[in-house]
Structures are given as structure tokens and as C-alpha cells.
Amino acid sequence: MNILSGFVVLYPMIVSLVWIMGAIFFSVQQRQIPLKKPGKGEPEQLVSVLIPAHNEEETLHEVVESVARLTYQKIELILIDDGSVDQTLNVMYELQKQYQSQFPIKVVPIIKNGGKAHALNVGLDSATGEYLLCLDSDSYIDQDALKHMMLEFYNDSNVGAVAGRPVVRNRTTLLGRLQLLEYIGIIDIIKRGQSFITGHITTVSGVIVVYRKKAIKEVHRWTVEALTEDIDMTWKLYSHNWRVAYCPQAVSWILVPEHMNALIRQRRRWARGGLEVLIRNRQLIFTGKLAEQWLLIDMVISNLWALSCFFMIVLYLLTMIFSHALILDGGILFVLTLISIVQFIIGFTSSQRQGYIDWQDLLLLPMYFVFYWVVNLISCITALGSFFLDPKRKGTWASPDRGV
């Protein structure tokens, strides 16, 4: 029991310290070794912008408007309607008329909803560019994002994908603001740390990512059966010796769930998608590169930690009920809190300079720590149950919670 209790406490502490140090050095490296830029007169490569959508009549205008504002101008836009039952397809044709004088726009209708991966595969057939910018239909991409991401391809011919940085834009509720802190203080820090220490990241963000078309075709396109196509594609690229880069300067403003049930469903899908990728790529734990082995082993340990944590919480509750005593180590709690604060400050400092977050959001910090661990623990445990009870579940689309 002491060993299990030590594992539950020490694992998040050690991992947090590792990612914090990696994130610091990642930022230093980016400042001291900037990417080489194309010379004057060098032509831009054509980028095909793929936007798959299912029942997104209310959000399409914004994402297309943001694409039209990109400073990287050699693009074509491909709008893919995946079996929508609202006016999404009609909106796409309206947007085609509105922006066709600025850049080529293709509308690709799909009769039956087959899921995001299937929609991307269909869109790929219409893409003429050698690079594919994939955006979610409810996002808003920063005008300089694509220019930053294309530099990664220019500097390394082995880069198969470049992941951008999602930043929450709907902050009208407490849940939305807590997720803002999570994306700033946890997700971004982890990806920076992974990039520096391993040269890999666990997954691209499907909401904003650029793929090299050659790499996508080499790995036989997106896996239609995958519940999370972005995690699956990341590891397919690794298995074919492609590199995946992280570009935090490439920002996409996203909408997040602002109802707890929708948030839990989203995180459960993420966790289950990670489990599917782990099982599918388990051989890389023994045959993959050291960085890939490290990330996969970390995924295994994370799931073991969730199970152990759940068991220890049940044990503590039983102890409280039958012995009427609460056993908590104040010193350990203080250290965990201190590490979490340091981790958040690093993300906050970077994001505050760029105007992504305000100092008032610091007032939510105590609630944020509880929120992050509770939501992700519940999601992981329920994903494990879902995976073993229904292992053949296939990914399709439903209209998500867009916030209040």
C-alpha cells in the first residue's frame, strides 16, 4: 500500500518537473536558434486547406473568414460536408461565391456521415497542394499561423506534420475559463517539454495541423475506424520515420464545451483514442526509437496511475467512513501545489505577453488544480471501461457543445 501510495503521489510530481524543465529549454532554444526563412523570390508552396464539417452552419463563416485573412496567400480551400442535416452544405456554396475571387474554393458533399477521418480522406482526393492545413470548422486561425508552420517544413525535409497551438476563445462561463487555464498551463507546457526532450509530441492538435501530403499518402491516409484521427495519424507518421513538430506561434482560437457532461464526453473520447493508439502501436515500445518508447511507456504509466489513483481514493473514503479519520500529508500536498503553480506561471507568462490571458484569470487557480485532476481522472477511468466493454466502437460525428 505504501508503494502504491508513493506511486500515486510521485508520478505526477516527477512528470511535471520533467515537462517544466523541457518547456523552459524549448523556449530558450527557439529564441537562440531561430528557423531559417526562405530567401526573397523563393515561391511559396501551395497549401490545401481542408475544413470538414458536420452540422456546422453557424460556425463556418468565421473559420473561412480567418482563412481569408492568412498572410500566407498561396492556398486553396476545400470545404467538406460530411452528411449534414442542417444548412451546412448551402452555407458552403454561399462562402464559395463570396471568396472565390480571393482563392480557389472547392465544395465536396458527402451523402452519409462517415466521421472526420473519412471526410479528410475524401477531401484529400480534391487537394492539389503538397501540404494540407486541416482546421476544425468551429475554429479561428491566427493570420500568421500558416506562415510560421510552413517554416518547419522548409527547415527539415523529414517533417511530416506540424502541430499548432489551440487557445480557448469562449470564456463566458466558469468551465470555459478553467479550460483556458488548462490549455495555457498544461497542454502547451507538455508539448513544449516533449518537443525539447524527445523531439516528438504525443499528438498533434486536430484543430490546427499542417501535413505533408506525401507523408499522408505513405501511411495510407487517415484511419476511418480511429476515434481520434489526430492521435492515430501522429503515430502512423512515427511508424514510418516521419517527424512531427510543434509550433506554439501558430495559434487557432477554439470553442470548448461549457457543460460538464459534454466536457467529460470529449475527454473520454480523447482518452479512449489514446488507448486505441497505444494498443495499435504497442510493438514500438520494443522496436521504436527511444523517444517513441518513452512516450508510449508514459501513456501506459498514465493509465496505471489513473487506476491506482482511483483505488487509493476509494481506500481513503473507506478509511474516513470506518475510522473517522482523514489521513493527508500536508508536505506532499504543498509540494504538488507548488509544482503546479510553477508549471502554470510558465505558460501564463508566455501567453500573457501575447494577450491570450488576463491576470484576473489567476483568481481561478485554486479551483483549476482540482478541476484538471478530477476531470481527467474521471475521463481516463470511464475510457478504460468503454474500451474493454466496447472495443469495436467506431468514430462518427455528432453536433458538439459549442459553449454558451
TrEMBL record:
Keyword match Transmembrane: yes
Keywords: Glycosyltransferase, Membrane, Transferase, Transmembrane, Transmembrane helix
Gene3D superfamilies found in the cross-reference section: Spore Coat Polysaccharide Biosynthesis Protein SpsA, Chain A
Superkingdom classification of source: Bacteria
SUPFAM superfamilies listed in its UniProt record: Nucleotide-diphospho-sugar transferases
Presence of keyword Methyltransferase: no
TM stretches of this protein: 6-28, 304-326, 332-350, 362-389
Glycosyltransferase 2-like domain location: 48-219
Entry coiled-coil feature ranges: none
GO molecular function terms noted in the UniProt entry: glycosyltransferase activity
Family note: Belongs to the glycosyltransferase 2 family.
Name by which UniProt lists this protein: Glycosyltransferase
Organism: Secundilactobacillus silagincola
